[in-house]
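Look at one record.

>
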Amino acid sequence: MSHGQDAEGSLEVGEDVVRVRVSRLLLEDSPRATGEDEEHVRLLAGVEGELPPIVVHRSTMRVIDGAHRVRAARLAAREFITARYFDGSPEDAFVLAVRANVGHGLPLSLKDRVAAAERIVATHPAWSDRMIAESTGTASRTVAEIRARTGGADQPEVRIGRDGRARPVDGGRRRSLARTLLTENPELSLRQVAHLAGVSPETVRRVRNRLLYGRPPAPPRTPATARDRTGLPDAGAILQKLAIDPALRQSGTGRAMLRLLHAQLVPGDEWERILTHLPTHCAGLVEQVAREFSRRWTEVAVRASEMSRATH
């Protein structure tokens, strides 16, 4: 079992750049099933000057990111290469390798990304579907299908999200229990209800606020299978595809568009939390700004639709 069930801080690479002897490095356990691209290796071998540092798993000296650069250094008979060290577990080193190879100029194939997701579901079962999907460049529904197919009854009751916070898998049932406790035992404090229901006091506060307005314990969610049947897109998966497109990543305006789109990628329950705690005296101003933003995004959608039709 990996310690990768902790927050993403466990996947941090050291900042110090060191010189490492090329002969000490191991090129194995790559998420790229077909190996390195020979033409790219030859191009890198002909580059004058120092290439960006590679990332190396310190305890095994396995190359996490930079296999093409190492192959190029060997082809050019270089003795040393610059590197940064990673001190986590081998399981976390693999996750880091996948992340590095999802977004750069030679991204992993879909087959490699799905295979990586299957492996990470097994080594990091406490990670949420979205966290694994983001790490592997796949859709969260793909990860959910993998988990359902391979996880069985061994899946933990709590999963860690992209924000590092642990959340119960059966959150809906626990929120319903919190609502029952609030209704039948109004004298209980938020902390007492939270302890009995197995949720946080903040969750109990949200459930209580929704109860006051006659709403269900949590906003209704559409199952992934239902989303697929309706043909609605998975915004997270679409953004992952856009994020690895060189035409966007390599231009200032493209990167600005990616930042704007990623800023909108907020889960529905997070919007609910934000709105529940919105001060009443600010609601009118927030409405004005939201409507203006909505108008502008509608214009973006219309212009993008026209451009898309023009290319088909």
